[in-house]
Amino acid sequence: MNLARRTAALAATAVLCTAAGPAVSVAAAADSPSPKAPADLPSALHGTKDPTYDGVWRQSLALLAQDAAGVVPAGKSVDWLAGQQCASGGFAAYRADATEKCDAKTAVDSNSTAAAVQALAALGGHSAQVEKAAGWLKSVQNQDGGWGYAPGGPSDANSTSVVIGALAASGRKPEGVKSQQGKSPYDALLGFQLGCDAKTGEAAQDGKGAAAESGRGAFAYQPDKKGALAANADATVAAALAGQGKGLLVEPVSKGTDEKTEPLDCGGSAKPDVHRAAAGASAYVADLLEKDSHLTALAPGATDPAPDYANTAEAVIALTAGGHREAAEASLKWLEKNAEAWSKDNPAGLATLVLAAHAAGSDPRDFGGTDLVSALNATGPKPESAEPAQDAAGQKAQSEDDGTPAVWWIIGVGLVAGIGIGFLLSGRKKK
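Structure tokens predicted for Prenyltransferase/squalene oxidase repeat-containing protein:
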């Protein structure tokens, strides 16, 4: 996840939700203490940059990716994440002193909570925390069935998507989690998709991450003030994954089972359906990737778009989850060649790449010559075990006869608790 976008989202939410209970306010943000120096950060935390806006998020992704790679995370790292939970069940982006009780000023949010649920559910042994967090998410569900970043904020595709992944990770069927109006998360998600009256294949992005032109099957982050929808690459990737009822941890796709992407079905009898919607979103994402194999975004103050590594990696996860292995292959190779500098000392970035490689059936321990797993481990406390998973006979996932590196992730799949994204997606927010 792009930290700049997450930070901008939190600031935007403050403006929209100053009367929404625990949501952060502009005044509170202005009065917040200065970022801690790296030496003052918790020793259990992954990463050394200021965690104010992404501490729980990056810790959750790091632990989720370690678990997917067959690594047993450091106990104190897991304890730190679990300890960030408020009594209500929600998680804030970061609490410097978790011994202090949360109150109305504690800015709990759906994205941090949903990410923590996915990680703790996958790790196992934290059913109480997972259930409490899932209960909190249900308690702040909007009447349209979706979620905004902060409680009480208007629903958006990204937040709704990351919560869908969390619900699935907690063992719930997202379609069964309904608001008082009887609306499910999928009802809300379908409301963000550009339908059959939109054009096909047009996807020029503007500086705020939204698409300047419509595109059939794409998703908007939110409707504008007039209710119009504009295609957004971030939102579309997140929805493509969430529409399948999955989160960022996706089991490796078997070779030989590839399915071609198809544009949003606009047949005369076609009715709104989340699986159909996810397929249309996947086709839109595949079209975006066809030219350069990666997605782009404009950074604040920039005039030219730059590669969006995080969203490209999430696109790989979404496409492979939908069985579109071939559509994701070129993007995975592009990441192998180009993402090293971006992911260096970046726990969330490294974790997303690990999860992308894991989903696509690639080896994150040899990702374009880089050992992503070791690099991720180095951003936090020493893991309890950094070795690849072992098979039932206790043998390392490696041929003892010829020394051929094993496809370690196949062995590890059976050890990973199934989970359903959130971003995702994504879980990212529009500036």
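Residues 8 and 431 are 5 Å apart (CA to CA).
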